[in-house]
Amino acid sequence: MQILTGLSQKEIEKITDELHQSKFRARQIHNWIYLKSAKSIDDMTDLSKDFREELKKIAKVSDVKIKVKQESVDGTLKYLLEYPDGECVETVLMRFDNRANLTACVSSQIGCAVNCAFCATGKRGFIRNLDYKEIVEQVLTIQRDTGLKVTNVVFMGQGEPLLNLDNVLKAMKIFNESLQIGQRRITVSTSGIIPGINQLAEIDMQSTLAISLHAPNHDIRKQIMPVENKYNILDLKSALKNYIAKTGRRITIEYLLIENLNDTFDCAKELAHYLHDLKCNINLIPYNSVEYNDFKKPSNSSVMKFKCLLEHSGKKVTVRLERGADIDAACGQLKGKYLQI
Ligand code: SAH
Ligand code: SF4
C-alpha cells in the first residue's frame, strides 16, 4: 500500500500512470494532499468515483495516528503521533493571536543523542531518525486535523535536525515545493553540529539557521551541553562565520536563561563579545521547567536586564514567549510517550 503523504508530484504521476490516468489527475491528488488537507481518498471529490475506488486499492493518504491531542489555554495544540512501528513523536502548533502565522514545531528524531542537561527529549536517549515522510506527516496531520494552513515550520521539537540532515532537507523541500511554505518561513535549530552547519553553508540554505548556544564560554557550555566536548564554542564560531559568509544570511542565536548559571552580568558581557562580529539576532529563552533537575527559571526582571545589556551591543534581541506550558508543549518539554522521569 502506497502512502500518498510525502510523495512529490512526479511520484504521484507514477501511480496515475499505472492506473492509466493523466498527469492532471496527479496534480489534483497532489493538491488534495498538500493544500486541501484531504483525510482520505474519498475526500477527493473531483476525481471520479471509479478512479477513487481503483486508487484506494493501492494507496492511502496517511498511516499516522493521532494518539493524544491536547489544547493549551493559550491555543497551542500538542499532538502525540504514532507511526506504524508503534513509535511516537510529539508535534506542536502555535498560534499567536496578533499574527496570522501558524507555526508548526516539528520533531526530526525520536529521542535525541545530544543529551543536554536541561531538555526532556535528551533524557530519553536516541531511539531512531524520522524519515522525511514522517516529518512531513507531522505538518499534514495538523492541517488535516485543524483544517488550517500551516505558514511557518520550526525544527524545534524532539531531536537534533543536523544529525538527520538528509531527511530534514528532503522534508524542507516538500514544505517549500508542495506545501508552498516559503524557505524563509522555515527555521532549523541545532545544538551546534559543525559538520551539518558546514553542509548547510555549501548548499547555500535560504531558511533560517538557529543555534542553541546557551552559554558564553566553553566552561559553562560544557556543564549543560555535552556536545561542547565534541564541537567547542570557538570552532562553532568559525563554522558560523563561514556559514554567514557563504549564505549571506543572518542567523539566530538562541540563549536559554537559567538562573545563576548563565544569566549574570558577566555572562551578558562575554556573550556580547562572542557575538560582536557575527551577523545575528538573539532570542532569549527563559528556561522551562522539566522534572528532576535543579535548574530554575530566572525572574522577569533579570531576563529584561540581560536583554538590555545585549541590546547595548547593537543586536536585535527578543524574548521567546512561552507557549503551551500547561500541556508540557513548551520548548524542551517534549518527551514522547514512554519517558518516565
Ligand atoms: N535539537 C535542536 C532542536 C530542538 S530543541 C536544538 O537543541 O537546537 C529546540 C530549542 O529548545 C533549543 O534551543 C533547546 O535548547 C531548547 N530547550 C531545550 N530544553 C529546554 C527547556 N527546558 N526550556 C527552554 N528551552 C529548552
Ligand atoms: Fe537534543 Fe536539542 Fe534537547 Fe539538546 S536541546 S537534547 S540537542 S533536542
Structural overview:
The structure is a single chain. With 341 residues, the chain is of the alpha/beta class. The protein is built from 11 helices and 14 strands. It has helices at 9-18, 23-34, 49-58, 120-123, 132-146, 165-177, 194-202, 218-224, 233-247, 265-275, 300-311, and strands at residues 2-3, 59-60, 65-71, 77-82, 88-95, 102-105, 109-111, 126-129, 152-155, 186-190, 208-212, 251-257, 280-286, 317-319. The strands form 3 sheets. The protein has a 10-stranded mixed β-sheet with strand order 3-4-5-6-9-10-11-12-13-14, with helices on one face. The protein has a two-stranded parallel ribbon with strand order 1-2. Strands 7-8 form a two-stranded antiparallel sheet. Helix 7 links the parallel strand 10 (186-190) and strand 11. Helix 1 crosses helix 2, helix 5 (132-146) crosses helix 6 and helix 7 (194-202) packs parallel to helix 9 (233-247). The longest helix is centred in the middle third of the chain and has 15 residues, at 132-146. It is elongated, with a radius of gyration of 21 Å.
